[in-house]
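lol ok so funny story. i was supposed to be doing the assay writeup but got distracted and ended up predicting the structure for this chain instead. priorities right. anyway since i did it might as well share w the group, maybe its usefull for someone
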Amino acid sequence: MSAVREMVCVVDDDPSIRRSLGRLFKSARYTAEMFASAEDYLAQELFPGAVCLVVDVRMPALNGLDLQRAIEARGGCEQIVFITGHSDLPACRQAMKNGAVDFLLKPFDSDELIEAIERALARSRESVRARAKRREARALVDKLTPREFEVLRFVIIGFLNKQIAAELRTAEKTIKVHRGRVMHKLAVSSVPDLVRFSQLAGVTPAGDGNGTKVRYPG
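and the output, tada:
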């Protein structure tokens, strides 16, 4: 399983649905796992690759929309295709507003489901790539010294070296050295690039929150 790069997971309390979708996905050559509840899925270790969830809307305890919110809260890269046996327009609206890829009414066409899964996996791959880039950016930021991190937070709001020096009560030439080290460590060559990099890494600009250097989750 460690070599698997993407997966389709079914979350449905109906065993007959899980069996039929399991057969469909096997014939379509997807690696698939079946879960009888949202709680069972959330109890599993996060899969590092692209994931499409095929989720029933109405389930006991946590329903499909609850699962969608839980995944969003933990920053998962899963993308969801909802399925339901009930014509539930409010649930459909909410699911799509929250980022679902599709909302299919049972019984649905197999080709329609496969097409939705392909779109979901494509979107999940992009999310996985974006998460990897964020982690790489944050790892580089963590290599900065506390003073370099302070300088970074002032540079990205447009402060000049002399302004930063005044804020930090140090010499302008010292700030120039720190600034050069920041650019080198983060592998950027211009202030606009530094701003984009900082946004990717989630760096809080000076004057917006506290100045403490943090290690980021996720």
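The chain has a mean pLDDT of 89. The chain has nine helices and five strands.
back to the writeup now i swear
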